[in-house]
Amino acid sequence: MIRALLLAGLLLCASLAQAFDLEQLSAQLAKPALLRGPFIQEKHLRALPQPLTSKGLFVLSAEHGLLWQLRSPLHLDYRIDANGIARRTKQGWQQQAGQDSAGQQSRLFLAVLKGDHAGLARDFELHLGGSADAWQLSLTPRSLLLKQIFSVIQIQGGALVERIELQEAQGDSTLLRLPDSQTGNSLSEQERNDFAD
Amino acid sequence: MPIERYLPRLFGVLLLALLALTAWQWRNGPPLATSLLSLLPHGAGDQLVQRAEQRMQEPLNREVLLLIGHPQREQAIELVRQVAEDWRTTQRFERLQWRLDADLSALRQQLRSSRLDLLPAAARAQLIEQPEAFIQQRAAQLFDAFAGYSLLPLEQDWLGIGARAQQTLNPQQRIQADLGSGALLLQDQGMTWTLLRARTRDGAFDLQAPAEIAAAVHRARDTVGAQGGQLLAASGMLYAAAGQATAAREISWIGGGALLATLLLLLLAYRRARVLVSLLPVGVALLAGSSACVLLFGQVNIMTLVLGTSLIGVALDFAQHYLSKSWGQSNWHSWSALRATLPGLSLSLATNLIGYLALAFTPFPALTQVAVFSAAGLIAAYLCAVCLLPAWLSGLRLSPAPALLGGSQRLLAWRAALLAKTGSGPLLGLLALFCVGGLLQLHSQNDLRQWLGQQPQLLAEAQQIAELTGQQPTSQFFLVRAADPQQLLQRQAALSARLDQVVASDQLRSYRSLNQLLAPASQRLALREALQALPQHWQPLLAAGIPEAALRAELEQLLDTPPTNLEQALAGPFGEGWRPLWLGRSDSGVAGLISLQGPADMPSLRAAAEGLDGVQLVDRLGELNGLFAATQLSAAELKLTSCVAILLLLSLPFGLRGALRVVCLPLLAALTALACLGWLGQPLTLFSLFGLLLITAIGVDYTILMRENIGGPAVSLLGTLLAALTSWLSFGLLLVSQTPVIANFGLAVSLGLFFCFLLAPWASPATRRGTTQNTDQTTVWDELSRPMANPSTYGCPPRAAPRLDKDCQ
């Protein structure tokens, strides 16, 4: 859930607009039709000296959706599209929708993808600072329920989103870095197949 | 005569007393009950069963479930917010729940302390049988960006037992809480539905609540519809509201229509406005009936009032008895006409009372109430017609429409001509054939659903809600008794195992049992053993970077925690959904329920309970339907008994042969009506049977009128016709009721009345000689009536039938 919200935050920037440059930021982030690159996720737990770290690759297509390929320490593939979340199994993609709150987050996700941000603006207080080259956006939950889950989401970037940090209400935090995202023009054959079936 | 002065005054005192009593009974508003179901017999079960039934009925009577749908998710949430806000201001609801505003810390607390015990069956089985799969799944979850939100932080739940136990909270996964607004959401084919669950302050049996709840639903529907949304509602309250509205409409239409038509009929027949005071007994009857019911039962049910409107026709009959005699003579006088007809009136009252009171001996509160209402009403109407009306009609010179008498005479002439050709025998044979043919096609049908009017829209919406949410509460449930909570869980688990198969074979949608919340101790013991072997399988978690010490510490903590008991599990927030299933402790042990979500296949459920100790399938609907059918038999017996009683009573004035004739004709009419139901393809229900039971009593009234023959056959036939018409106007109008049982009752009685009228002339003493002109017969009745019907005041000898007109001129 938390990670999904991180990703929601990533896409949120692409569609939300406010006084300063939220409008511009939104346009700026919405420009690329295709984005791909590595991700590094660090889970900082109070009980552990070292964060739980995982790495992988992502492909974000404005048209098709998101491929999330975890490569280390486990090999797991996820896909988020209009149908919800699917996980790759030996038998092919398996739809995860309807299994606890995960399905709902995928919809949240796609709502953001489509620029339908009215609901998010109601649930979060948004604050944008910095310039177009180096900006920070913070999302503070408004609802009692969300406040019991996390305290704040921080998003930073320049031309593209680079860093998303989520502070959990219970003290742990998750950091997602997208250090080397590249814009692209077309999907590879493999990616096209992944989105197809 | 002094008696003629005292009687009206005496009755006036009685009437004032009745008015005072009614005013006192109504001092706190109308003592009306609206629940049709409260008229059903109480369950045969013991106290525990009845408590369980109440527990299961409660939500049906108090809860309103709304689904508000919109293609846009945010809009759906906004709409439910608006509706909830509006409803909050109405003060009608004691609880409104449209969003999850759960206190997560309480949930976390219970999960921390009892997660092992709260683990759902599937996860428990996996942990015992495939521990490595369980661990692998957990490892994947640690890095899964899209895993659901876990209530416990990772460091308190390394093994992921809490994350799995948390699924117990939402066993049917279709409804999800929106984390932003907390709204309860359901996705289906491009629509987002939001859920609003409301609990009303007053139950469905309250007089005002259902209508106000229905209005609130209507308002919500308008709000939602205006903004492009869709609203589905399900609640027992809505059925109650529709039932009340129907009943109120029908009382005014049927009662009003009957009264108006009767009024016209009387004006047409007697051509004197003053005759309309003969409507007074109707008012007195209704007043006395309802006040007797309130006196005996505390309240009068709205259904009793609907059926009671049929009393109008019967209450009018008393006055008809002597008013119709005005055709027989020109100098009609109220008191002397009354004296001539008083024995007949009294016999009518007695036979009617026997008929109605027979209803009181059935185990159905509904019919007992109708019986009391009618008996009290009849006595009041009789007293009014005998004591008061003649005084008010005194001095009235009646000149009734002569055409009616002519018509009546022509009818009798046709009948005589017909009989001269064929004789009664062949006609009886034909009728017998008709009856046999009809009876062969008759089918009996008893279903509680006939009590509720047809509300196709409510049904369709409830069905749609059931399909969307998977929630379709059935009235059947299992009651499980045991010595202690442990044994209760054991027994429920045994039953659950069988119910799983019933669900798998699509004979049941789902069920909810206590062992879903907390497994029996034996199963939890196996889990603890499996847990001790877990270190052999947790390599994937170590590989993910979790220190072994942390895992060991958690395992130890899990194994050291004392097992949760059922009452603890129910007390926490996780137990909320299961609390209604727990009936608690009593001297004989403990008891719990298993609730079912329909549609349920009864034989499969019965088979599932077979041979299990302490398990009882409670099926109120089936029990009632069975009771309906069984009561039909006893109703038939009652009918015969009431006939014997009437026969005995009538053999006093008429002799056995005469009484037989007077009693058998209405029986034959009832039989013919029964056959008609068969020919028409209409079912015989308990209510139509009771309708026919009444017919024998009312029909005897007509045959007495014909047999008594005061004023001659034509005058008597006309009196019978008027009485039958007024009765039919009220009973016949019940035909149009939207409540199937009442309509069915109306149909049976209408048919019965028609045949009663048709057959009544055979009761006339003259017809025994095959001619209407015979005046030489003397019967016991004549002996009895002669001193009362003083020929000198009455003007003519009682049985000088058709020649009467001439004699008197």
Helix content of chain B: 55-70%
As a percent range, the share of strand residues of chain B is: 5-15%
- Would you give the CATH topology of chain A? outer membrane lipoprotein receptor (LolB), chain A
Order of helices and strands of chain A: HHEEEEEEHHEEHEEEEH
| Rg over C-alpha atoms of chain A, rounded to the nearest angstrom | 16 Å
Structure summary, number of beta strands of chain A: 12
Question: Major beta sheet of chain A, specifics?
Answer: 12 strands, antiparallel
How many extended strands of chain B?
A: 13
What does this structure look like?
- The complex is a heterodimer of chains A (197) and B (809).
- Chain A is α+β, with helices and mostly antiparallel strands.
- Chain A has a single domain, classed as Lipoprotein localisation LolA/LolB/LppX (outer membrane lipoprotein receptor (LolB), chain A).
- Helices cover 27% and strands 42% of the residues of chain A.
- Chain A has 6 helices and 12 strands.
- In chain A, strands 1, 2, 3, 4, 5, 6, 7, 8, 9, 10, 11 and 12 form a 12-stranded antiparallel β-sheet that branches.
- In chain A, strand 9 and strand 10 form a beta hairpin.
- The longest helix of chain A has 14 residues, at 2-15.
- Chain A is globular and about 40 Å long.
- Residues 1-7, 12-19 and 108-116 of chain A have low confidence and may be disordered.
- Chain B is an alpha+beta fold and 809 residues long.
- Chain B has a domain at 272-396 and 407-451 and 623-808.
- Chain B contains 31 helices and 13 strands.
- In chain B, the strands form 3 sheets. In chain B, strands 2, 3, 4, 5, 6 and 7 form a 6-stranded antiparallel β-sheet that branches.
- In chain B, a hairpin with a 2-residue loop joins strand 11 and strand 12 (589-597).
- The longest helix of chain B has 61 residues, at 620-680.
- Chain B starts with a helix and ends with a helix.
- Residues 767-809 of chain B have low confidence and may be disordered.
- The chains are: A alpha+beta (197), B alpha+beta (809).
- Chain A: Monomer.
- Chain A: Keywords: Protein transport, Signal, Transport.
- Chain A: It comes from Pseudomonas taeanensis MS-3.
- Chain A: Residues 177-197 are annotated as: Disordered.
